[in-house]
Amino acid sequence: xxIADRAHLPxxxxxxxxxxxxxxxxxxxxxxxxxxxxxxxDRPAAKIRAAHEGPDELLKRGLAELNQGxxxxxxxxxxxxxxxxxxxxxAYNGVGVTFYARSDFDxxxxxxxxxxxxxxxxxxxxxxxxxxxxxxxxxPLAFRYLRLxxxxxxxxxxxxxxxxxxxxxxxxxxxxxxxxxxxxxxxxPAAGAHR
Length: 195
Prior knowledge:
By secondary structure, this protein is mainly alpha-helical. It is built from 10 helices and no strands. It is elongated.
């Protein structure tokens, strides 16, 4: 056909044949962050989620799963958040909580310590370490980490008083002293805020 005769041919393709190409879904334009390997299954599901969500969203979803008692999905979401931002201490702490829930205390302890490497002022991680040491009967270490938790803005006194993990420490003079110090520390900023 001469070039002049081609002018009447359509210039757009309306076929759904693109759906036959691996990695290019039917009728979908390529979105930012789209990777053909996702559609082919060449990448783990974690990377697919992480490509479409930020670490904050993954942390929120992980906490929701954790609060529902779904520890394995929570762990994966925390790990996904860490894949995007390796400095998220809350995610390391969350992974530790999932291992703690499985009674894998050594692994939980290792993750809590990683949380402190990422953020040495994460009071929750100190508290969680104290709980493990208390369960193991290592009272001096448990009190040391409880003090560190309080120094790093852990202020949940009621939790400390009713936490079964800390039951071996209840009634000890150090516990009463620590709770009193926490009350004073919480009350002091509140009084100063009214000035």
